[in-house]
Structure prediction request, 379 residues.
Amino acid sequence: MTGAARAAGTTPSADLIVIGGGIHGCATAMYAALRGLSVTLLEKETVARHASGVNAGGVRRLGRHYAEVAISQRSMEIWYGLEDFLAADCGFNVAPQIRVIETEAELEDARRRVRDLNEMGFDHEVILDQKQLREHLPAVSDHVIGGLACLEDGFAQPFHTTFAIARKAKAEGVRIVETCRATGLSQSEGVWSVETAEGTFRAAKVLIAGGAWGNDLSSSLGEPVPLKDCAPMMIVTSRLPHFCDAVVSAIGRPLSFKQMPNGTVVIGGGRLGRADRTTNLSEILFDELHLTAETASDIFPIMREASIVRTWSGVESILPDAIPVMGPSARHEGLFYSFGYSTHGFQLGPGCGEVMAELIATGSTGYSLDAFAVNRFAA
Ligand SMILES: Cc1cc2nc3c(=O)[nH]c(=O)nc-3n(C[C@H](O)[C@H](O)[C@H](O)COP(=O)(O)OP(=O)(O)OC[C@H]3O[C@@H](n4cnc5c(N)ncnc54)[C@H](O)[C@@H]3O)c2cc1C
Prediction:
């Protein structure tokens, strides 16, 4: 949609305006449309341009903050059927996600975590002993003493997935307006006005799903959160003989690691580069990247034979407790937030989209969102 054709009128143009065309904005827009809402989605650049299009594709329940576990479980149920539902290839594969355990103290932490999850009613994470771990990871270093695993997690292609969700949203009637930045929001007599260079869009409800930029808009509405820009960094290596079917991370150090069918290894998982929200760019920090490569070689000695072929990073953001802001505004009727996914929001996309759409459409959801409240930092 271009130019004057997309200028907005003076009456409510939709039931819901979603700001942000990442996986969270697109998924919420799609589920809201499926609930019968008319939805306009505004994206300042193009759909999937940022974290949702460039991430590592880890579809991981393993190791989640306890507050996220229930929604992450629901999201996984959706992931299993997502390609059929979207009639699209999202590159989704079920694969074990395994966190290697290198010390007795880490093993004790992992056992405690599994016990806690069991008490919460979840049994998706299990401990692997040395022998079981080597059945999954025969090339793992001798010093590794076990693993914490979620054997039915997986991975997917991020841009394929986010585009497919956006296409389905469009097919359900969502109006997606790209290169259209929301510059200001205000509310009058129950109607929200969203200012853009293309004109004013109006709706009874607004969702801010602006990723690393979410806090710019929430702050302008009196609800700032301490969101910090960051840039997770990724490495792709030269091809190696097949040695790993799982997605591997470590309990004690930042790592995420998977071998692709063509033999290359994709490594990421925690070491951060520099992000600049104002230019929309991210930068690789090579000293940090070097530590990631070293960790991978420590855990899989075969990696010493690989060379780095390319690297990339993307603009993302982290909150101090590393969980998102998700739920209603604490100050404004008809305003909702879903941003700050703190480097692990891809897997949560479908589940959070479904939950947010339910909340926006009906006023409530069966999931507790207390831990994600926008005003939790004010206290
Ligand atoms: C390199 C990398 C690897 C990662 N690996 C994983 C992984 O393996 N597994 C996992 O679960 N997660 C991973 N993540 C994190 C995950 O990608 C993000 O948490 C998730 O994609 C966030 O989605 P989002 O929709 O909230 O944000 P985004 O994808 O950033 O989308 C937000 C969108 O809002 C738009 N926007 C912002 N402000 C405005 C405005 N004012 N007007 C209009 N549009 C606006 C932006 O342009 C952007 O497109 C990784 C991230 C990176 C960068």
Summary: Residues 69-86 form the longest helix (18 residues). Confidence is low (pLDDT under 50) at residues 1-9.
